[in-house]
Amino acid sequence: MSDRDERHRRAMQTLKSHVDDKVAAATERRGQLLVFTGNGKGKTTAAWGTVTRALGYGYRVGVVQFIKGQWECGERARLEEDPNLEVAIMATGFTWETQNREADTEACRAVWAEAERMLADSEVYLTVLDEITYMLKFGYLDIATVKRALENRPAEQTVIITGRNAHRELTAMADTVTEMQEVRHAFNAGLEARRGIDY
Ligand code: ATP
Ligand code: MG
């Protein structure tokens, strides 16, 4: 064995023992709270990826879309056939399109009621609150209400929250927080949103 191979072997051995230690230490078993935030692309995509993962095992999943940003959504169209998936969508369009605070608040409250039902249902394995961060930011929903529903959810239920500028109380209580960092986005170079890629 060359010097380089021997060094590699030893480095891998050390790495394996670190990984094994961490795996052995991770013994707590319960549902988790994940926050996908930041300005980079990928938050909603990652949430739907996890939805697909959970549905793949036959678990029940609820998705609540708080901003109907794109009318179309390829993942929803494909996965909605799955009887284990329930999707609730806020009834209005872009908040910057409706420009009506009262109507937006009402639409938000209505879809939040669906979210609360899912968050209280012990049959639901995973709930996604897509773009809920904006509801808190605009004041359509208050943080205490959301926190209470999250804290009181069944212990086995996992929740994913997506959206930019996540409220610090949400990131503080989350088990996993991922900040998508924008290095570059095609849109800023004039490329239009692409079907099947961006929505
Ligand atoms: P995606 O749905 O692609 O995972 P996202 O959830 O991280 O994106 P949002 O802010 O919810 O980000 O984006 C909504 C739409 O805007 C999507 O079509 C997405 O591809 C696009 N988008 C995401 N990030 C950016 C960005 N940094 N600049 C411009 N457009 C973006
Ligand atoms: Mg998104």
Automatic annotation (TrEMBL):
Which GO terms label this protein's molecular function in UniProt? ATP binding; corrinoid adenosyltransferase activity
Would the keyword ATP-binding be found if you checked this record's keyword annotation?
yes
Q: Which GO terms describe its biological process?
A: cobalamin biosynthetic process; porphyrin-containing compound biosynthetic process
Cellular component (GO) terms are: cytoplasm
Pathway, per record: Cofactor biosynthesis; adenosylcobalamin biosynthesis; adenosylcobalamin from cob(II)yrinate a,c-diamide: step 2/7
Question: What is the annotated localization of this protein?
Answer: Cytoplasm
Instruction: List its EC numbers.
Output: 2.5.1.17
Reaction catalysed by this chain?
A: 2 cob(II)yrinate a,c diamide + reduced [electron-transfer flavoprotein] + 2 ATP = 2 adenosylcob(III)yrinate a,c-diamide + 2 triphosphate + oxidized [electron-transfer flavoprotein] + 3 H(+); 2 cob(II)alamin + reduced [electron-transfer flavoprotein] + 2 ATP = 2 adenosylcob(III)alamin + 2 triphosphate + oxidized [electron-transfer flavoprotein] + 3 H(+)
Keywords, in A-Z order: ATP-binding, Cobalamin biosynthesis, Cytoplasm, Nucleotide-binding, Porphyrin biosynthesis, Transferase
Which Pfam families does the record associate with it?
CobA_CobO_BtuR
Please state what class of enzyme this protein is. transferase
Which purpose does this protein serve, as stated in its record? Required for both de novo synthesis of the corrin ring for the assimilation of exogenous corrinoids. Participates in the adenosylation of a variety of incomplete and complete corrinoids.
Q: What NCBIfam families would the database entry show?
A: cobA (TIGR00708), PRK05986.1 (NF004637)
PANTHER family, alphabetized: CORRINOID ADENOSYLTRANSFERASE (PTHR46638:SF1)
Family affiliation: Belongs to the Cob(I)alamin adenosyltransferase family.
State what protein this is by name: Corrinoid adenosyltransferase
Native source species: Halomonas organivorans
